[in-house]
Design goal:
There is one protein chain. With 125 residues, the chain is an all-beta fold. The chain contains no helices and 13 strands. It has strands at residues 2-6, 9-12, 17-24, 33-38, 45-51, 56-59, 67-72, 77-82, 91-98, 101-103, 106-108, 112-117, 119-124.
């Protein structure tokens, strides 16, 4: 499955943005999907992961209460709704499909098999 993340942009601190993840070649419905991000000079980190048919949702501690991962089966889209954005949320955001692997509260990318091109999110002061 080929994935595509979209919806990134420039937003002021405190603002909101919603990212979308769509698939071609297959469906996202029923698949665990995760959102990851990579800031300049930093390693990629897991932001959120969802196994929606099991109501299994996990978030990085840094985004809990601000970000929401959700799916729309009608449009076969997985969203990442981001509120109260902070400067440190800046980065390239990727969606991925595979397995949600969470170790000691950290969302790992080990289980993800399909990755899309990222979308840039820039939070300004």
């Amino acid at each position: 499955v080929q994935l595509q993340a979209s919806g990134g942009g420039l937003v002021q601190s405190g603002g909101s943005l919603t990212l979308s993840c769509t698939a071609s070649g297959s469906t996202l419905t029923g698949r665990p999907v995760g959102w990851f991000r990579q800031a300049p000079g930093k390693e990629r980190e897991g932001v959120a992961c969802g196994v929606f048919n099991m109501n299994f949702l996990r978030y990085a501690e840094s985004v809990k209460g601000r970000f929401t991962i959700a799916t729309d089966n009608d449009t076969d889209t997985v969203y990442l709704r981001m509120n109260s954005l902070k400067l440190e949320d800046t980065g390239v955001y990727y969606c991925a499909a595979g397995q949600c692997v969470v170790v000691d509260g950290e969302i790992k990318d080990d289980g993800m098999k399909s990755w899309g091109k990222g979308t840039q999110v820039t939070v300004s002061s």
